């Protein structure tokens, strides 16, 4: 009855921002980033890759409550770049890595299909006369 | 690692490596290596929960004299896999300008059956007929894969009983309801010999004798007798088994999953660099409300294209002009990477 709507897990409400930065007081070069309507998919991905990034001293994430779709990522850098710059560069690197993965997947798939040709009938209703049966 | 030298390709030899061991119309099995576990797991999670597909979301029942309650039937209808080809150009009904639903944000299906004979009659998914305007000829058509061409059983009618209803199918993701999940199941495993001790195998006498080896056990070196535990080891080969529910081809689930992740990350980059002048300055990103930002082709303005640099933009779109994935599994012909 008072259950929240399921779409509140992924749809930003009016006026909400996807990501906000809060500078951590009492820690040098440290910021918290609050991601709304996200979960472990991004939280774990980003914090794991921030840990491997240059100039990042510390990174971690938490989801304070399982029913609240908010991720907090804390980043501390050595001062050569800001936490925000570190996060942006990790995001860019990941976009490129997933892009690479997509291309590799397509290439492999085409190779696979080439190898399979003749072994299988064409899938998905394709008449595909080139298979010769 | 013993990967095929053919995939070792100029500058791209450092990134993720993919090896596909099976690809047909139901499943794609592949190994992903040279990545860390967070990267692999994010892809798995996104394929499970965040790829947009289409499913019945509203049912208006005009006549129901069956023994089943209206809401029971409505629930069954929701779970019927519908063809999601071209769903990316369907507007999210919550963002649509219309009131309720229209042909830009939904597909209408009708079902009308009456048992006039003297034997019980079965009503199948093939009896659900898409009506009215559609974005393309197949979007929203119930998936039928059995040899008789019937599709899933919806209900049964006794002589004289009748069912008449209209369904509205909308776009959605599995985070909202599992009926929008593109995959029936996603197998995901790593470290088949459990060298990393990420799992504890329960056993009576001997775990080796009692647990069947993984099908990937022979792909990796078994541990040596008395081998010391490697505290620095991390998993880096992951085995996926993506099985489709029928609405998207299995390879499209993978490529769409990658696209969704890229869009998420690009959205963050955009917000974080906003106001810096630089790259993110094209204004097509004013507070997105849906998971995918409904900006047609690549979703995110000007940053990177999802990986179809070679000219075949929409990930699982066919090379140049052919229908998106009708012919994907085999004989896609001239794939543009050459
Ligand atoms: Zn509409």
Automatic annotation (TrEMBL), chain A:
The record, for PROSITE patterns, names:
RNA_POL_L_13KD (PS01154)
Tree of life domain? Eukaryota
Q: Does the keyword rRNA-binding apply?
A: no
Against InterPro entries, the record matches this protein to: RBP11, RBP11-like, RBP11-like_dimer, RNA_pol_Rpb11_13-16kDa_CS, Rpo11-like
Which UniProt keyword terms apply here?
A: DNA-directed RNA polymerase, Nucleus, Transcription
Q: Which Gene Ontology CC terms are recorded?
A: RNA polymerase II, core complex
Residues in DNA-directed RNA polymerase RBP11-like dimerisation domain copies: 31-102
Q: What is its main location?
A: nucleus
**Cellular location(s):** Nucleus
* GO annotation, biological process: transcription by RNA polymerase II
Pfam families linked? RNA_pol_L_2
UniProt name for this protein: RBP11-like subunits of RNA polymerase
TrEMBL record, chain B:
Please, one GO biological process term?
Answer: transcription by RNA polymerase II
Q: Where is the composition biased (Low complexity)?
A: 324-338
Q: Does the keyword Transcription apply?
A: yes
Q: Where is this region: Disordered?
A: 314-338
SUPFAM superfamilies, from UniProt? Insert subdomain of RNA polymerase alpha subunit (SSF56553), RBP11-like subunits of RNA polymerase (SSF55257)
The record's section on Pfam families has: RNA_pol_A_bac, RNA_pol_L
Where it sits in the cell: the answer is:
Nucleus
| GO MF annotation: an example | DNA-directed RNA polymerase activity
InterPro entries recorded for this chain?
DNA-dir_RNA_pol_30-40kDasu_CS, DNA-dir_RNA_pol_insert, DNA-dir_RNA_pol_RpoA/D/Rpb3, RBP11-like, RNAP_Rpo3/Rpb3/RPAC1, RNApol_insert_sf, Rpo3/RPB3_RNA_Pol_subunit
Please tell me whether the keyword Membrane is annotated for this protein: no
Q: From the UniProt record, list the coiled-coil ranges.
A: none
What GO cellular component is one of the record's annotations? RNA polymerase II, core complex
Which residues are in the DNA-directed RNA polymerase RpoA/D/Rpb3-type domain? 27-271
Keywords of the record: DNA-directed RNA polymerase, Nucleus, Transcription
Q: Which family does it belong to?
A: Belongs to the archaeal Rpo3/eukaryotic RPB3 RNA polymerase subunit family.
This protein's assembly is summarised as: Component of the RNA polymerase II (Pol II) complex consisting of 12 subunits.
* Name used for this protein in its record: DNA-directed RNA polymerase II subunit RPB3
The species this protein belongs to is Canariomyces notabilis
Q: What is the lineage of its organism?
A: Eukaryota, Fungi, Dikarya, Ascomycota, Pezizomycotina
